Amino acid sequence: MTMTTEEYRAVFTDKVLGELQEILSRYPNKQAALLPALWLVQRERGWISDRNMVEVAEVLGVTPAYVKGVVTFYTMYHQHPVGDNFVQVCTTSPCNICGAESVVKALLEQTGAKDPGATSPDGRWTIVEVECLGACGFATPVLVNDDFIENVTPERVPEIVKKYR
Amino acid sequence: MGFPHPPHPKETVLLSQYFGDPEARSHKGWVKRGGYEALAQALKMQAGEVVEVVKESGLRGRGGAGFPTGLKWSFMPKEKKKPHYLCVNADESEPGTFKDREIMRWTPHALLEGTAIAAHAIQAEIAYIYIRGEFTEPWTIMEKALAEANAAGVFGKIRIVLHRGAGAYICGEETALMNSIEGKRGNPRIKPPFPAAAGLFGMPTTINNVETLAAVPHILKRGATWYKGLCLSNPKSTGTKLFSVCGHVQRPGNYEVTMGFPLKDLLYELSGGMRSGRTLKACIPGGSSVPILSREETERTLLDYEGVVAQGSMLGSGGVIVFDDSADMVYQIMRLARFYAHESCAQCTQCREGTAWTTKILERILAGQGKTQDLDLLLDLSENMTGKTICVLSDSCAAPVVSGIKKFKNEFEDYIAGKRKPVMVA
Asked: For a pLDDT cut of 90, what percent of chain A falls above it?
């Protein structure tokens, strides 16, 4: 994925605008629709550019700086393009003692992504270490895009990489 | 999706009765299992009557604080002058805890039913269920269940809305959660005002945990006296509780037991004990924010609010993290400190700086560059991080550090004295 800010396209038109209207009906004010609106942007564009933050600000009647303040607070919003497959691996203590760090290592090796957070040269993969995915009894949980995979071991990594490659 | 273990004979299955039963997920399947009867019953009662039943049952908040649920509901204004809101905390992010996830993905209607009963009891017209962003699977299941229940018209005038978080542990703190729903950064608010006076959108609000609400339909259906009778030890802790067991046990998973159940039995029998050839070293009984228990303390602990406090820790969310003799406690405590440093909202100096420096000092020790005075320094830092901030995230970082240094001091000293090979690079 090589999108840049130059290729800005508005998100809130037609169908997506309709979705936003429905979301707005759930709250007593427009600002409360900010998190859902940002999710829509990320779903449509893969990440949230500064220009799209301005668009969200205009649609919801808040300032662009305010939107940026919120985007930067929440770790799941991407402020830069990421690989086609965004992989989150839990490495917090309960998963850590069950070998989570070896899962990260295996994923990096087999996708060609150099370090956690870096995208592989072919643009297909970004592997990140995250804090607690809330599935500690199913160590190690791995979130590939929106697919939540449980009990991942280094031995299972090739099968996962193959599936999403 | 992982299927749960079949129930152990020593479990008391109430909330977990239909875990593993995919049919219970649909509205039709839920109704067939007696679902939504309690809601229909509650909607025929006065709001105040529902509050009284829950008060009488002794149900306490399952999110961590253990505050009496009925009492919390009774703080809402009796005479409604403004909109009232209910927030459901499904931002389950406490390391070691994965019970609410299981409730939502197996029995979504149990949560919806409990939510609607609570909304009726506090006279709220809208209930927001705040689900953490990473819970993609529970989200999809909840969305489907909500659509089915709405189509069946079971909620009367009550509207239930799902709200997705975006990756912030702190949003599990009740006032941060409200800010997050309002489209703000998830910074906790100073209390007072308490949510019942001025909460979501400045209106009277109640916030309840998923597991708490899932228990409510059972209480309505079978009565407060029956629920109160579910108690093995202290009468102040009633009902059943889901314990999420993880780490070094043979069968990690969720186990539901009556309050007062021995932790020893939960670990050695229900969870299948340690891996072969290993022995128990330490246990965190209530999610990563509570003090670490030694093996001896663990084996003495009774699982209720008072029983865990008696051993120097807290019941918290019921997330039980088990460490066997292979665990490097210094490294694991560093990982926990790193978690809190990552998740600090950075409003309060003690937390922002304290969690970061605690992590750095622990990393230094693990890199073989620790100094003898580092342990005192860590304790001093922890002292300044406890009871001094808007919320308890900072205290939660100090808990494993202080208890860890007290109970596993030799492991820290070995790194500092160079008796143990560094496991990190400075």
From this structure: 95
Residue B421 resides in a domain: no
Show the domain range for B319. Answer: 240-324
In a domain, A79, yes or no: no
Please tell me whether residues B205 and B257 are part of one structural domain: no
Residues A32 and A101 in one domain: no
Q: Is residue B29 located within the same domain as residue B177?
A: yes
- Our CA-based measurement puts residue A6 at a distance from the nearest CA of chain B, in whole angstroms, of 26
Picking from B137, B331, B343, the nearest residue to A148 by CB comes out as B137
CATH of the domain at B261: 3.10.20.600
Check if the beta carbon of residue A103 is closer than 8 Å to that of residue A140.
Answer: yes
Contact B101 A135 (CB under 8 A): yes
Report the distance separating Cα B270 and Cα B303, nearest Å: 14
Question: Inter-chain contact B182–A137, Cβ cutoff 8 Å?
Answer: no
Write down the ipTM of this complex: 0.95
At A148, the amino acid letter reads: F
Total count of domains within chain A: 2
Q: How far is B56 from chain A (nearest CA, A)?
A: 32
- Statement to judge: residues A94 and A160 lie in one domain: yes
* CB-based burial, B157-187: b 16+ in 10 Å, e otherwise: ebbbbbbbbbbbbbbbbbbbbbbbbbbbbbb
Is B247 within 8 Å of A31 when comparing Cβ atoms? no
Instruction: Give per-residue pLDDT as tens, B370-389.
Output: 999 999 999 999 999 999 99
Same-domain pairing of B80 and B197 = yes
Please name which of A28, A128, A122 lies closest in space to residue A84, comparing C-alpha atoms: A122
Residue type, B8: H
pLDDT digit string, tens, across residues B48-98 = 999 999 999 999 999 999 999 999 999 999 999 999 999 999 999 999 999
- Selected residues 126-165 of chain B with any CB under 8 Å from a CB in chain A: 126, 132-137, 161, 163-165
CB interface of B with A, residues 50-89, below 8 Å: 83
Which pTM value belongs to this model? 0.97
Alpha-carbon distance A140 to nearest alpha carbon in chain B (angstroms): 10
